[in-house]
């Protein structure tokens, strides 16, 4: 089976894919439940838990776009960390004062400005397989 780039890819069985998907779902559910139980035991606000998961999702987007190799660069890591802090602060402030529907335009603007700054400082992300 060929992928979009034309290189050969092993075709996995549908059952294996479904088991991997189920395992990932159970892992996320377990981590979320564990984080909620720990936050309840140590009296941590649920807003911090929500901010943590928003940060994890944000880092996944950055890692998927630029690759792990770029995240190992000290300059890019510092930029990503500062962008993460801005992202989580905007997330918490807009959700606490305005609500989720107002967060969507703020998210689009923040991601647009952040990616424009990243492209300006570090160049556009590489296309194709990264080999990370």
Molecular structure report:
- The chain has 132 residues and is mainly alpha-helical.
- The chain folds into two domains: 1-43; 45-122, no CATH class.
- The protein has helices spanning 14-41, 46-66, 68-71, 74-97, 100-122.
- The model has no long low-confidence stretch (mean pLDDT 85).
Strand content: under 5%
Number of helices: 5
What is the CA-based Rg, rounded?
Answer: 18 Å
Order of helices and strands: HHHHH
User: Uncertain segments of ≥5 residues (pLDDT<50)?
Assistant: none
Mean pLDDT over all positions? 85
The total tally of domains equals 2
Distance between the termini: 22 Å
**Quick one: biggest sheet?**
none
Class based on secondary structure composition and strand pairing: mainly alpha
- Give helix % range: over 70%
* Number of strand segments: 0
* Shape estimate: globular
Q: What is the structure about, briefly put?
A:
The chain has helices at residues 14-41, 46-66, 68-71, 74-97, 100-122.
């Amino acid at each position: 089976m060929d992928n979009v780039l034309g290189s050969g890819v092993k075709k996995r069985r549908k059952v294996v894919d479904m088991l991997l998907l189920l395992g990932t779902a159970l892992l996320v559910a377990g981590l979320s439940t564990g984080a909620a139980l720990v936050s309840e035991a140590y009296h941590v606000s649920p807003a911090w838990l929500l901010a943590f998961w928003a940060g994890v999702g944000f880092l996944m987007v950055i890692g998927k776009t630029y690759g792990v190799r770029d995240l190992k660069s000290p300059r890019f890591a510092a930029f990503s960390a500062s962008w993460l802090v801005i992202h989580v602060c905007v997330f918490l402030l807009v959700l606490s004062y305005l609500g989720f529907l107002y967060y969507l335009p703020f998210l689009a603007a923040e991601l647009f400005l952040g990616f424009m700054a990243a492209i300006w400082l570090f160049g556009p992300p590489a296309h194709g397989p990264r080999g990370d």
